[in-house]
Amino acid sequence: MSDLSQRRALVTGASAGIGEATARALAAAGARVTLAARRFERVQAIAAELDGAEALALDVTDSAAVTAALAGREFDLVVANAGLARGVEPLQEGDPAEWSEVIDTNVKGVLNTVRATLQPMLDAGRGDVILLGSVAGRQVYPGGAVYCASKHAVRAIYEGLRQDAGGRGVRFSTVDPGMVKTDFSRVRFRGDEQRAAAVYDGVDALTPEDVAESIVWIATRPQRVNVGELVLWASAQSSTTKLTRR
Ligand SMILES: NC(=O)c1ccc[n+]([C@@H]2O[C@H](COP(=O)([O-])OP(=O)(O)OC[C@H]3O[C@@H](n4cnc5c(N)ncnc54)[C@H](OP(=O)(O)O)[C@@H]3O)[C@@H](O)[C@H]2O)c1
After folding, report:
1. Which top CATH class is 8-232?
2. Residue ranges covered by each domain of the chain
3. Tell me: the pLDDT tens digits for 92-107?
4. Has 158 been annotated as catalytic?
5. 167 backbone φψ class: left, alpha, beta (φ>0; ψ -120 to 50)
């Protein structure tokens, strides 16, 4: 399985950042890709550039909508990537509406996506389910309790999938990046461009393409190989709290 020409892939959160780069990389490796996100016009424009790709309007937080949108579609490569963070306020100052947004997207969104796509892969005895975790699923940093909790949950979901559905030909992976330069910080800081740009000042952050390349690598390993957990730090990061800037 050194190329993906026989594969049918779903990428959630494919309208930007890691998801967009992953959709592009999977398509370049030959997969037919469904690009899903809420901003339909964006996924539509990206899909139009890719051979065999299609766009899907999808809000992963809406379990009924996810079930309806994915009913009757079969994939053998699912990248559950849609996710976001909101703010870096201390927990005691947090906004419950934002907590719900983060948990509904990062946790329930992954569950909804997997629930709507896994059974046909199990029936076929083949497929890859790749979750976008984070180093925030391994360490907790100040102001990150809720986002880190959501990514710790992604790691638990990955481990739960291995327990509940492992050994039946479907491979499960979690890709856990450190800092990647995307719209992530702009979303986290609610559109504050200056604050978002400062996150990456003097740092060679990972690129979305770095992460996408690792996802293609995971999906193209021989069937006997299941890359379980892949952690990709930016070289300047010693931990989630220690960063060396130029
Ligand atoms: N950037 C980093 O430093 C970093 C590090 C580790 C892990 N990650 C993880 O990587 C994933 C991708 O993040 P990114 O950095 O590429 O951020 P990004 O550029 O902001 O992209 C986030 C994507 O998620 C989609 N999305 C958000 N809410 C959604 C929803 N309810 N339904 C469907 N799609 C939704 C967005 O599309 P729409 O707005 O069009 O729906 C967008 O395509 C996330 O899970 C994030 O937690 C990021």
Report:
1. alpha beta
2. 8-232
3. 999 999 999 999 999 9
4. no
5. left
